[in-house]
Amino acid sequence: MEIPKDETEFKLYKLRHSCTHVMAQAVQDLFPGTRLCIGPPVEDGFYYDFEAQKPFTLEDLVKIETRMKEIIKGNFLFEQTTHSKEEALEVFSKRNEKFKCEMIRELPGDTVTFVQHDTFVDLCRGHHAMRTGNLKHFKLLKVAGAYWRGDEKREQLQRIYGTAWPTKDELDTYLIRLEEAKKRDHRELGPRLDLFSIEPDHIGSGLILWHPKGARIRIQMEEYLRNKHLARGYQPVFTPHIGRAELWKTSGHIDFYRENMFAPMDVEGQAYYVKPMNCPFHIAIYKSGLRSYRDLPVKLTELGTVYRYERSGVLHGLLRVRGFTQDDSHIFCRPDQLQTQITEVLELAKEILSDFGFKEYDLKLSTRPQKYVGSPDDWQKAEAALEAGLKASGLPYEIDPGEGVFYGPKIDLKIKDSIGRAWQCSTIQVDFNLPERFGVTYRDDKGHDVRPIMVHRAILGSLERFFGVLVEHYAGAFPVWLAPVQVAVLPISEKLIDYANQIHQEINSAGFRVELDNSNQTIGAKIREATLQKLPYMLVIGEKEKTEGTVAVRNRVGENLGTLKLAAFLSKLKEENESRRGCPASVVDKTVRV
Ligand SMILES: [Zn+2]
Ligand SMILES: [Zn+2]
After folding, report:
1. In this structure, what DSSP letter does residue 9 have?
2. DSSP 229-293
3. Of the candidates 161, 183, 205, which is a domain's last residue?
4. What is the DSSP letter of 41?
């Protein structure tokens, strides 16, 4: 985690960083011989990696916490001192701390700094609380496996996570939020609702299997995205999954991105790589014909599946995977069109994200870094266009000076979910690099071939990741328009199967996703099953309904919505489906508790 610029964030950083030292001391006091690795503050907390003789248990965490409280009570000062590298190596090699020694050798410069409190010394660049007494409101959360340097070929480590806050209230609020998040964890809900699975041993790590129910949601997402893009003048394209090494050489991926690419395969004596990005293919399509200034902007769009080699240590459910599909588009435009294009992308993002139920956004414009390609003048103009585009969109934004990538300024958009967590989602990235590398041009009004501006943009980002966020946002209680099964037909007894079948068929013909439960279970069990699956509507079919030609409607939180003629129910369903109304938060909350 970088040192935060914001004052409050910096205070939290110092607090959590200090906790890592106290935790490390407690661990070594209780488990002598445990080796120290690194212990950084992270979002909402901190961790420390240890090489331990045996894995820590939850009981161990309780003991560590108790020891930490004693150290905190001691109210020791954190003191920083500077040492030569030799001296530092001597101190840590005496203690058999081989990881610290490895770090000392790799650090630049001739000196390093130590930070000490009580009797405990750690290699550390500083930024701590004043005294251990400032760290009262902390909690250790869990233990996880990790590898030294995130490399599965290196030593296996034990990572202890914790959180710390300035006040007891803040700590309690955070712990409640964590409980809430646990109940919504997509890695739990995914298999439980039969949406997707991941089988590291059988299929491979970080590779997602979309089950029929998850796939139905994905089809809704894809259809919706396609229509929105076509309506905005994007042109659909499809591109291959592999491409020749020469292509990735030209694009710069082999030189600058290789560690994230899977090893090449040999095809008739030539190297081919699985694509980590779609951009070079879209450029090839743009370049397939002569483009005049009148043809611009050209907006190519694809739901493009890419593969990136992520180390197994960083893989995380659907959020960090090795194969994913981007809602990827590339805009080629004239400089005078950039601002309008940016505003349009932001409008589209707002439209799409709010239909998926996300109404709060955090936008950031990142400007020219120290190292960059292109001319300062082009950067300045592009940054101005991006900012003007942001202003015109009416969305609040912040500027992050110097945080752009080397090839162009960008806008990042984060969404806020139903329990207040922020998720990185859309990116709009200007690129001065690829058009240069591939010699991309258009013919201007004077007959000269000049470079267009190229913009990479994704709104959902990765479909897999966005789906993971959606599962947690709705706790699996998807709104009608996304729900894999919208209606369950539940006959009370076998005698009613014919009528239930007829209802099922009519709903199906009306274009809705419907399932008939014709098992010989009791109606109570059928309702319970549909409730656990969080299906939006259940139609209970009894003798009375059959005689009257009606259905008894229930929703997923057990509310009785009355007995209706099927046509009346269908018209309500149609309205809800088309409005893309989300499931109200109160309903989602109730489904979390079933
Ligand atoms: Zn430190
Ligand atoms: Zn791209």
Report:
1. H
2. HHHTT-EE----SEEEHHHHHHHTHHHHTGGGSPPPEEETTEEEEE-S-SHHHHHHHHTTS--BT
3. 183
4. E
Q: Residue 412 sits in which domain range?
A: 197-239+291-465
Give yes or no for residue 161 having a pLDDT over 70: yes
State the chain's mean pLDDT as an integer. 95
Structure tokens at 109: 């410069």
Ligand in nearest proximity to the CA of 427: 2
- Asked if residues 206 and 229 have their Cβ atoms less than 8 Å apart, the reply is no
Token pair, residue 218, equals 């994905």
Q: How far is CA 470 from the centre of its chain?
A: 10
**Could you tell me the two tokens for 52?**
């331990």
**What gap in Å lies between CA 133 and CA 145, rounded to an integer?**
30
Question: What separation in Å is there between the alpha carbon of 3 and the centre of ligand 1?
Answer: 12
Same domain, 333 and 407: yes
Note the pTM of the prediction, 2 decimals.
Answer: 0.84
Distance between CA 483 and CA 467 in Å, rounded? 12
Q: What pLDDT does 384 receive?
A: 95
Place of tokens 């913009």: 455
Q: Omega before 297 cis (within 30°)?
A: yes
Residue 159's CATH number:
3.30.980.10
Q: How far apart are CA 487 and CA 569, in angstroms?
A: 11
Catalytic position from the list 16, 456, 504, 546: 456
Confidence of residue 594 (pLDDT cuts 50, 70, 90): low
Active-site annotation holds for 17:
no
Number of domains in the chain: 4
